[in-house]
Each structure stands twice: as C-alpha cells, then as structure tokens.
C-alpha cells in the first residue's frame, strides 16, 4: 500500500503497533496522522521549517515532532500539548524511554537533547493532581481552593492516577549504582502517610477500580493490588504482551478484568482480578476490537462491557454471559459514568447519553426512549470523551480544547433510589419531573428488579398499553417462579424462562410457554419426557393447523396421531394444574 502523503519529500515516519496509527513529516513543513488504511486523521498547521523527525511514545498516547530548533509533544489525535525551542539545530531523530516519561533527540549540530514530561494533570471530583516537576506533585482541592499536598519524591515520577478516593504515584530510578521502582498509595483524605510497594521495573500504566488497581510493566506484566498494598494476582496467558497494553485494550472493574487478545483482536479475554485466573470462555466478536471498557456500577453479576470495533460500531454485552447487542454506529469515543450505569458516546455529529444502557437486556423497544441526543457539530471531527462524572461530560475537541456538556441530574437520583430499593421515592421523582425518558428508565429498572407494581405505573405513564396489559397478566400468576419465567420471557429469553419453570416442577407452564411460542416439537418433547399433557400439545397443534387449513407434515406428530383428544379432559387437567400451583 502506498499513497501521496505530503507536498514534497517525506522526511520521516513512525508507526505505533499499539494504536495502529502512522505519523509522517515532510518538506512541506507539516506533520500528519494516518490510520493503517492510509486515511488522513489529522494535518498540522505549517511549521516555520521542515519537519525532520517524528517518534511515538511506546503506549501510543503521545508523539514528538522535531524541526529546526524546535521539538513538540502532541496527542495521538494530532493537536499539540507543547512546543519547546532548542539550540541543537534540526532534530534528526527522536527516541522515548520504555515508560514514556523521557525522550532524547539527536541534534544536527552534534548535541543530544533530553526531555522529561512535566505539567501533567489528573482530576477526580474536586481534586486536581499536577506533576509540575519530574519528582514533585501538588494536590489541590479546587472547591476549597487549598493545596492538600505538596510532595517531593526521591526518584522521578513515571505515572500518576487518582480515582475512587485513592491517589497512586509510581516512581523509578535507574543509574549506574541504583535501580528501583516504587508505587505510593494515598487516600485523598490522608495524603501524608502512604502505603509503599517496591516494584521490579518502572510502571507503564495504572488502572483503578473501586476495590483494587493494576500496574503494567514490561517485566512482570499485569499485577493487581489492593489499596492496602497487597498483591492479589498476576494474570498471565499465552501471547499477553504488556508492551502493547493501553487503556483502550484493557479494562478493570470490581470482579472483572478484560484484555483484548493480541494474537486474535476479535477475542476479549476475561480474568478474575482476585485470583488472576481466566473466567470462562473469551468473548468473541465478528470484527477486530478497537476499544473496550467495563462499567463500574452495580453488582459483579450484572457487570457490562462496552465494545467498539474497527467499523466504529458500539456493542454491549454482559461479562459473564456473552450476548453482544449493537446500540450505536459511527462512534468516535465512548465513556461510562463514574458512579452510575449511564453511558455516553460521540457519534455521527451527536453527543448521545444512554440513561439506562441495561435496557437492551430488558426491553429493546425502550432503547430510544431512554437516551438523550444533543447536537455535537461544535465538537469538531473525531472528538474524545475525557470524563463523565456527576452531571457533566467533558469532551476534548479535535483542536485540543476542552468542552463541557451537561446531563440531566434526575437519572443519577433514579439510580440512587432504585439501588436502595426505594421504589416509592423513585416513582415520586418521576411524577415530579414529568419526563418521558425518566419514566421509561424507571419502567426498565422495575422490570429488572421484578417490581411489578412500579413497572405497572411506569408503563401507564409512557402509554405502553400492551406492556401494561402483560404486567397485569404476570401479577395474576400465583408462584414466584412463574412470575420470574414470564419476566424472562418479557426480556426475550425463552430458554431461561423454560429452565426456571422446569426447575420449579411447573411442567404444564413450560409446555404451554412453548405452545404460545409455536415451538411445537419442543413442547411435545417436554410432554413425552415428563409424561404429562401429551394430549394437550396434540390438541393445540390440531387447532393451529385447522385454523390455517393445513395438514400435519411433522413425522414426530404423525407418530402420535392415534392419541385421543378430549377437550373436556384437557381443560379439567389444566384447571387442576392451576389449582395445584396456587397451593404451592
């Protein structure tokens, strides 16, 4: 593959195997970012001089650009973080350290240029953490406008991360006499007495979740720790190469760790962070996976994974039961809410927020009714979602500027009430707000929580008459197992509904369920296996065929044509079954 990239000679190129992006620089005094198919993603403004060198940071998040007496550090999407003047002439070659915190440049006048990444910021809540020198960190509470910590470290800082009330700082030192790496663990309410972990090599990446965090380095790979500093696990598998890991192909949450398989990018590997062992079969997608992210809300059994493939289609699947459902296309970037189950994405010139993404496994008809769309043309081409917390979404535009968009506060309150099982309070909130989307969210949450009274009110409020009638039908079922089976059927899970009924010994309901779904052979198979209601299945089958003026063609049913059909006896047995069910 080849293409015309610059108006003049191409002087330098670099390709990153982690993000699969290519940068190039030429005599036209520009640098450009390309994808692996040769499509232009970004083109810089004209430099004063030709671009003589480019170099990716190993993790693919940043790259450096060298020109005459100038070196720039840029985001992977193209915009420049900083530009520094030098006195070394044209920078002919750029090389990064393995941890991505330092770089070296070869000057045309024979000098070697060394640089350290500083002025890095990370935020969580009202806390802002700034690495203003290579060994100094300042923590500021922006609400109180006070400096909470002003900390010097004996070694250079390689990585910082803050979240879930914990601050993590990784340091490294490597010289002719000493070689060491450490991780400092601070609670944000006590920034003066950290837990300290001794490490074998410098850390490339930190990923946090509610009850643990992981560190990635090129020697030990992935290591999971508790916030008390105890190592929990060291997940390993065939072909897991830590140098290719980044926050797009690795995600951590309470009870789950997921990694895109480097050998087969269509597969997503699942690990238990507490033991490091693989959990079940990998999740397999039809196309190569570009980005993954786990939600941080709710129970581990309800954990969901968002998957973005190379076609920019966004899918959701439960972690413990693969069921990929497409929810959006032409997606540039997506992000889970930090405290609830909400999901936001920039797609096709719009900013979309799904208030209750789990609705795809409850009632797909409510998907469009539980999301909010906003015009995103002002965000420019290829925007990136940076943070989704409280009622604000922070978006990085293609030119590097940060833009905030507001989100309704009521979905977060709804999550709070339903999580605490305060269904009456949730209903009062919806009545106060009078928002169709909030009512639709409550309807889906009530079905998921098997709260039929609340679901009845919510479906009535959004004029879903057919669903309301079905809820009223479910409420008349006398057994909890029967109710659970009907709700599983409402979610379009007939196999699960059947299994619930068979486990509870409700054979007639399991048979009738398959009759209603026209799964005639399965209904007859259950009747023969349990030796009950064979005549019932044959009777309903005959009625069905007669209504369409059809003859029996199934060999299985033809074998039982000699069975006598007595509808009075069938009705008596059905009545007897229902009475027996009431007494359970």
Give a description of the structure.
The chain is α+β, with helices and mostly antiparallel strands and 584 residues long. The strands form nine sheets. Strands 5-6-7-8-9 form a five-stranded antiparallel sheet, with no helix packed on it. Strands 1-2-3-4 form a four-stranded antiparallel sheet, with no helix packed on it. A four-stranded antiparallel sheet has the order 10-11-12-13, with no helix packed on it. The radius of gyration is 30 Å and the shape is elongated. It is built from twelve helices and 36 strands. The model has no long low-confidence stretch (mean pLDDT 91).
Shape: elongated
Q: Based on DSSP secondary structure assignment, what is the total number of beta strands?
A: 36
- What separation lies between the terminal Cα atoms? 71 Å
Helix content: 10-25%
Mean pLDDT level: 91
Strand order of the largest sheet: 5-6-7-8-9
| Count of helix runs | 12
Tell me the structural class: alpha+beta
Largest sheet: 5 strands, antiparallel
Low-confidence stretches: none
Rg calc: 30 Å
Q: Report strand %.
A: 35-45%
Which key terms come to mind for this protein?
584 residues, four-stranded antiparallel beta sheet, five-stranded antiparallel beta sheet, alpha+beta
In short:
This protein is of the alpha+beta class.
Write the layout of secondary structure elements.
Layout: E1 10-16, E2 21-26, E3 31-35, E4 40-43, E5 53-56, E6 62-75, E7 80-96, E8 102-107, E9 112-116, E10 120-124, E11 127-133, E12 136-141, E13 146-152, E14 156-163, E15 166-174, E16 179-187, E17 190-199, E18 205-208, E19 212-217, E20 221-226, E21 231-233, E22 250-253, E23 256-260, E24 267-271, E25 283-284, E26 289-294, E27 304-309, E28 314-318, E29 325-328, E30 331-336, E31 343-347, E32 350-354, E33 371-375, E34 384-389, E35 392-396, E36 402-406, H1 410-419, H2 423-433, H3 436-448, H4 452-461, H5 465-475, H6 480-490, H7 494-503, H8 507-516, H9 520-530, H10 534-547, H11 555-558, H12 567-582
Antiparallel strand pairs: 1-2, 2-3, 3-4, 5-6, 6-7, 7-8, 8-9, 10-11, 11-12, 12-13, 14-15, 15-16, 16-17, 18-19, 19-20, 20-21, 22-23, 23-24, 24-25, 26-27, 27-28, 28-29, 30-31, 31-32, 32-33, 34-35, 35-36
